């Protein structure tokens, strides 16, 4: 896959120049927008592969931009914002953002997030949504048609909830899933009480797929926000 085209949505000139210079040095194609209206128009007409989005835009909140773009596009959106509270991250991720990078940030972290998103795009483009697909990630294999999973060739003995949770994370590999999104998908409700149950199931699942649950290789915790399945090379 060629380097993707990236839309930078940022009204701070210094930060926009920093991001633009970084992308240019890495060989990415890009164009820019300085407010929400321009971002939505560019997303619709130029159809970029990835959006880098500031939330504090002069004409509208970035979360509104995410919500509007999500009505027609599943383009990956990486938020870059000075807002560091968990509630801000959760709101953006629940609206449809794929990742959240807090200002100030290093260019190394930005390019790492872009590479991770690109790997996810490559995986999605090479995969099929058919239910008979087989998902592989490192030593982890999920046979959706057969309804079973294995690790390093050994079948995993999972409870129905553990298997459903594993499949949900796998189908969104590389993307942060919030607690409310997961509980809504697993239990059909975003009731806060289910978060405690989610932690219990997650701990049990990790014991079965992680060599060292205290240093997980497959499932990363985003404290106060949710979980992400890491793409294992």
Automatic annotation (TrEMBL):
Principal cellular location given in the protein's record: cytoplasm
UniProt keyword terms in alphabetical order: Cytoplasm, DNA-binding, Phosphoprotein, Transcription, Transcription regulation, Two-component regulatory system
Localization in the cell: Cytoplasm
Sample GO molecular function, one term: phosphorelay response regulator activity
Residues carrying 4-aspartylphosphate: 54
Function: May play the central regulatory role in sporulation. It may be an element of the effector pathway responsible for the activation of sporulation genes in response to nutritional stress. Spo0A may act in concert with spo0H (a sigma factor) to control the expression of some genes that are critical to the sporulation process.
Protein name, as recorded: Stage 0 sporulation protein A homolog
Species whose genome carries this gene: Enterocloster lavalensis
